[in-house]
Amino acid sequence: MTKTILIPTDFSVQSLNVFKDAMTQLGETKAKVLLVHGISLSDSISDLLFFSKSQLIEKLETEEFVSSCWLMQNRFRSRIESLHVDIFTGFNVAAFNQYIEANKVDEAFVPVSYKFIRRHKRSFDLVPFIKKSSLTATEIQSEEFIEPTWIETEQLAALFFNKSHARG
Known about the structure:
The two termini are about 20 Å apart. Mean pLDDT is about 85; it is low at about 145-150 and about 165.
């Protein structure tokens, strides 16, 4: 059986701790993984005319984030059917419920102690949307989230060496 899971991300290597812990929690279950970031759309007509999700994602992704995703995909190669990074542009829980229905999401994994980092002036934290939605949310508690002062390269290495606990 394959599950589609949603994991909120702020495009930091640190946010991928939830991804790693979710895969551990799922055991041998195969997964389609959606890493999703929330962005409010601009009210400007010209901004909307030239809006491109793929260009925005490229702009927000760091080289370290892309490398970390690749490493995670290889680490769980036998259990990850697909890994997709996406942007949610809705502004309420009803829109989020439509997003999870359209993407056939079965479960979300959310961090308990991680503080969301705004990567864009219109970025927003998806966790409140997830908790208010119809989606089953499993909270991931990490004892040793990586210190935000570490550089991304150190975060990449630490991604594979921290302790975590999941609770649903």
